[in-house]
Amino acid sequence: MKIESQCIHEGYSPENGEPCVLPITQSTTFRYTSTAEVAKLLDLTEAGFFYSRLGNPTVDAVERKIAALEGGIGALATSSGQAAAFTAVMTIAKAGDHIISSSSIYGGSFNLLGVTLKRFGVEVTFVDQQANDEELEKAFRPNTKLVFGETIANPALTVFDIERFARLAHRHNVPLLVDNTFATPYLCRPFEFGADIVIHSTTKYLDGHAVQMGGVIVDSGKFDWTNGNFPEFTEPDASYHGTVYTTAFGPMAFLVKARAQIIRDIGCYQTPQGAFYVDLGIQTLPVRMEKHCRNAEAVARFLEHHPKVASVNYPGLPSSPAQALVQKYLPKGTAGVISFCLKGGRDAGARFIDSLKMVTLEVHVADIRTCVLHPASSTHRQLSDVQLTECGIAPGLVRLSMGLENIEDILEDLAQALNKA
Ligand code: PLP
């Protein structure tokens, strides 16, 4: 099936007389008639559901669907995008290990890797993704276990050179993990360029309607965990009856370890209700992404020529420095998020936002409503202009997420608000 059909049909195949729509299995637990059956499930020698912190039929269907969309061998759904990043990294790295990450990633991931994981004993080196191979090579250490990047970074909107980073990671026998949230598998499939693990915040375009929080981890199944660098995969896990993940589960070793160890202990699994909403959203992902891209392209071109606008950052603009990477990784479009700088600085940013009529002020991106955020007057309002600039955020910077409204209505609202900015 092509991706449009997969979005509708993968993951759930009703039998004769069963509901066409994925049922929500709103049950914490599952009944069995013998201790022997339960023992097999808990020993991981047989697949099945026994407790909804570890697996649930509705969540399982969405996991299968997203795995198919990304071209992976399986997936694991989590309670948020942050939970997906935490679970994926902690399945691979432990105290004393080191990871390399692009510095151009979502702020929450930057903090998770740079601050919180540090408290767990995992060190991170942030690298400039524009640096040449020689400089990037210097970031690798004997205890490096992972390389981390984001296809289209939130909010910098840089495009990650997946193939180049996969080559570097593999040269050092470590996997490349890519956060594919903004691109979605409709615009880019990182496994085709050598990535080993993909994560998403399903809170964004996969759901697309801003009705749930969720995340997902997808495994390509191609990384060799037996290469000597990952003893936790190849030696008995005392916390799971001495299971050796690579021996018992082959290419599924990473996902089974993530579920059986990290999700079991941290408890950040997706809910059946949340999974149902993600599934519903994914069914229209291709049509939505097409329109998010077209609306964003039109708005980026409009802003680029507006006298009150100092600069526009949208990778899909022909003038964007990311064009070569866009041609390679994102030929169908570069999603719906744009940032731009108003010449009038902080006050102009606030006046612009306050003058909008249809476009809404939200701490969110990637849903059907066109929404806007002015960091200097909201999420970063405690910082001075100097401090803002030090964080790479200009006082007049506005982040716009293009929704699916009629483009003339969007342009009209932006134009009247810019007149007052
Ligand atoms: N990754 C990216 C690219 C994001 O934009 C976000 C949230 O904005 C996250 C991860 C975190 O996802 P969540 O908010 O679902 O925890």
Keywords:
421 residues, binds pyridoxal-5'-phosphate, Aspartate Aminotransferase, domain 1, alpha/beta, 5-stranded mixed β-sheet, Aspartate Aminotransferase, domain 2
Describe this structure in a few short sentences.
The protein has 421 residues and is an alpha/beta fold.
Low-confidence runs: none
List of distinct ligands in this structure: pyridoxal-5'-phosphate
Structural class call reads alpha/beta
Overall mean confidence score, pLDDT: 96
Q: Would you list the SSEs in sequence order as H and E?
A: HHHEHEHEHEHEHEEHHHHHEHEHEEHEH
What would you say the CATH architecture of the largest domain is? 3-Layer(aba) Sandwich
**CATH T-level fold name of the largest domain:** Aspartate Aminotransferase, domain 2
**Radius of gyration, whole Å:** 22 Å
Shape: globular
Q: What is the helix tally?
A: 17
Task: Give the C-level CATH assignment of the largest domain.
Answer: Alpha Beta
Instruction: Give the N-terminus to C-terminus distance in angstroms.
Output: 48 Å
**Helix content, binned percent:** 25-40%
